[in-house]
Amino acid sequence: MDVVLEEVCRRLPHGGDHESRKYVAKKLMQSAKKGNVTLEGLRPVATRAFSDLSRRRPAKDETPHSGTSLAARSTHH
Question: pTM score, two decimals?
Answer without folding.
Answer: 0.70
